[in-house]
């Protein structure tokens, strides 16, 4: 068993309305940044998980996304093993 | 007729719902806590508005995994009527009991005001007392009410007459200005395929007494009462 650091990225589906991203893009333009074509706001979840292998850690992370962390209707997710924290 | 009013941590319309049911003779509302794994002997379920679990992650995302929702799922599978309002609608979508999802209002504003709704179908335990096409005035109060679903799901909702209410103008027309959250197809409320689950963003429980400014929500409770007492059998297509 090792303790893995999973980085879970959850993003709004391409094409889906993201009003938060739009508002942030406007604010960046207001700050003087020219050429901000688009911004989309997602979230990153750092999960520390004890698992027997890296593959299993990632698979569990993906299952967590399907069940809770991402909404299958509106969001895409990506799970990466960002590191091994310690022997659990 | 016993109605289970579910309270999640962060629910804030549970007492409004309780009070609305109390107003109508025949209903006996009872609170159920989110940790309750059983509903007991009840005839209907009300999922209230509010901010269950602080809307953490996504509105309704954590609530849909609470023990009481397992019981609600079983109750609904057996044909029991379930009404979800506002956050209750979000919980129903998150649980997969209704299709689609409710996203942040494109205005990024929390919208709290009366809206007009057009009754799109009377074929449900919640809308049988209304006339098809009737225009109701009922309040909304939400920040995440933009209804979206896949093209296929939207086509199914339309084709199967499962859109219960649409946002409309005072005259019943459909216009962008009368769609407070730019919901797809102006959707304010939808039914599941078996028609025993209704989710809606507007608050009928806040439109049941003159002092509240509107009594247009009463029809929903009257429909349910008629359905439960069997005096008005749900019509088949």
CATH C-level of chain A = Alpha Beta
Number of contiguous helices of chain A: 2
As a percent range, the share of helical residues of chain A equals: 25-40%
Number of domains of chain A: 1
- Low-confidence parts of chain B, pLDDT < 50 over ≥5 residues? 232-237
Write down the overall mean pLDDT of chain B.
95
Q: Enumerate the strands of the largest sheet of chain B in spatial order, edge to edge or round the barrel.
A: 2-1-3-4-11-10-9-6-7
- The helix-strand sequence of chain A is EHEHE
Q: What coarse outline of chain A follows from CA principal-axis ratios?
A: elongated
Largest interface: A-B, 10 and 21 residues
* Distance between the amino and carboxyl termini of chain A: 6 Å
Q: How does the major sheet of chain A shape up?
A: 3 strands, antiparallel
Radius of gyration of chain B: 16 Å
Query: Approximately how much beta-strand content do the residues of chain A carry?
Result: 35-45%
Nearest-angstrom radius of gyration of chain A?
17 Å
What sort of overall outline of chain B do the alpha carbons produce when their principal axes are compared? globular
The figure for the number of domains of chain B is 1
Task: Please bin the fraction of helical residues of chain B.
Answer: 10-25%
Query: Which strand order does the major sheet of chain A show?
Result: 2-1-3
Averaged pLDDT of chain A, please? 95
The low-confidence parts of chain A are: none
